[in-house]
Amino acid sequence: MSTSEPDVSGPAHVTRDCPASIADAAIAPPAPGEHVRIFDTSLRDGEQSPGCSMTAPQKLRFAHALSELGVDVIEVGFPASSVAEIDAGRAIAREVRGSTLAALARCHAGDIEAAARTLDAARAARLHVFISTSPLHREHKLGLSREQVIERAVMGVELARRHFDDVEFSAEDALRTEPDFLAEICGAAVAAGATTLNIPDTVGYTTPAEIRALFEYLRANVRDAHRAVFSAHCHDDLGLAVANSLAAIEGGARQVECTINGIGERAGNCALEELVMALNVRSGYFDARTRIDTRRLLPTSRLLSRITGMQVQRNKAIVGQNAFAHESGIHQHGMLKHRGTYEIMRPEDVGWVQSQIVLGRHSGRAALSDRLQSLGFALDEARLNQVFAGFKTLAEKKREVFDADLEALVLGTDAPTLHGHRLLHLHVSTGVGDDSLPTASVRLLDADGGQVSEAAVGDGPVHALFAALARATGIALHIDSYQVSSVTTGDDAQGQASVTARVDGAELSGSGTSTDILEASAHAWLEIANRVSRTRAAAPSPQRIAATA
Ligand SMILES: CC(=O)SCCNC(=O)CCNC(=O)[C@H](O)C(C)(C)COP(=O)(O)OP(=O)(O)OC[C@H]1O[C@@H](n2cnc3c(N)ncnc32)[C@H](O)[C@@H]1OP(=O)(O)O
Ligand SMILES: CC(C)C(=O)C(=O)O
């Protein structure tokens, strides 16, 4: 192998020619408000990411989620790659409705037959055939001349059309292909029956201005261009996949291929959630619509992370944990006055419950005071300043200051549970077998020093325990999440239980630690319940982030 730098740029005239061609191109801009098809390839290109392979049941589940999201086309896989891929695709084709189902094939008879067999039962099916068109790929990968590549492409499209009316042709590595040859092969594909022309930036090499120019050029120079929908498929090697896809839309693309969380070969593909929200938030600028139900973006992203085990980075746009979290005082102060100051979209519109004000070393008095009010503490200015000084000292030591820390700061060193109900006794029995039911009994010490005992049954021991605590305290919590993790090691490891609950429209969390995970769970539940009873006792209602106009 040569040690010199590989020439990856393709022919020098590729980038030089496009702008000149645009000047010649007398084409109408895309009609305003046009629909842009969303083609999701998480199950095909996404699955090509190392570490992202999915089982057949996982693919089926995710395909249902994509259809519920409102994706126009779901690429179910590359059937020629294995029997398991065919079986997974067939299961999707039997069940999933509401989206067109596509399968990828090389310009090979065997691949096309396998893809067609896979989509047999689909209500709406598309065959997607591809071949490389760039000089680098033609010479080094395929060993084919321009004419031979066109011949193969035409053969592939014609064979695909024998199975389905909906046929997509992709010119792999299109952005490093000579524009005149690209226009020629696209025209040949349309003549052979292709209804969608996909122009992939296979190696993530292009820039927004360049890809826009290329789409404008192709719309003007491909023979019978009006008979096909132009599509973009951008990779993220330079972090430009979303920007390039948006530019392609400006150039006339009316289908964009993307993946949830941007998974895909190498650095990934255009992230569906980012592209859709860019079109949505800047609708006046792009004037192009999708039919995606944006409130399903976060749940779909989370489902994919759970299935693949590939976590989304915290600062990822739209679906990352920090996407709607504010930690610095100046931003928090602005957010409390009007959330439009630091948010360009509503978290609720993409599936989050609400924005988050995270208290840490950069926070100021406005955010601290707001959080204290929502915890039921109304402090005068002098006391607030005192607590603020303690808060800053604590925040220097901790990354994030939690509600329980604030309660300790205001109330003194006692654990927060001392200021509400406290667990004295707990007994839980599990219910394995026909006649037994999981049962829990609890005895609590209340804030006035009295005792209260209650028992309850449930679907499982934790459910029974939480039901008994609800009876004893008179507080009903809607549990959103419950997790137990080990915080030390060995046989006597401490377990930490974390509970998140929604109460009176707010999301509250509590945690408890013990060598007994049921006791830890009871402490976590009581931490939230005690906060609720104190908040309810301390009217007026908490200040909320002002709604965006
Ligand atoms: C840009 C993209 O994302 S393309 C999609 C990439 N996805 C995948 O490759 C996943 C599925 N792939 C596979 O399972 C395997 O590669 C298979 C089963 C398809 C093929 O396996 P093999 O027959 O062992 O071939 P191998 O993968 O080593 O090489 C690819 C062959 O396809 C040929 N080829 C590549 N693209 C095309 C095309 N679009 N049309 C026709 N032939 C093509 C190559 O020239 C090579 O042919 P050769 O074996 O005659 O040299
Ligand atoms: C096969 C095509 C669409 C592709 O995945 C690419 O070129 O990246």
UniProtKB/TrEMBL annotation:
Record EC number: 2.3.3.13
Pathway annotation: Amino-acid biosynthesis; L-leucine biosynthesis; L-leucine from 3-methyl-2-oxobutanoate: step 1/4
Cofactor(s) named in the record: Mn(2+)
Molecular function as annotated in GO: 2-isopropylmalate synthase activity; acetyl-CoA C-acetyltransferase activity; manganese ion binding
Any Gene Ontology CC annotation: cytosol
UniProt KW Electron transport keyword: no
Family: Belongs to the alpha-IPM synthase/homocitrate synthase family. LeuA type 1 subfamily.
Function according to Swiss-Prot or TrEMBL: Catalyzes the condensation of the acetyl group of acetyl-CoA with 3-methyl-2-oxobutanoate (2-ketoisovalerate) to form 3-carboxy-3-hydroxy-4-methylpentanoate (2-isopropylmalate).
Identification of the protein by name: 2-isopropylmalate synthase
Gene source species: Montanilutibacter psychrotolerans
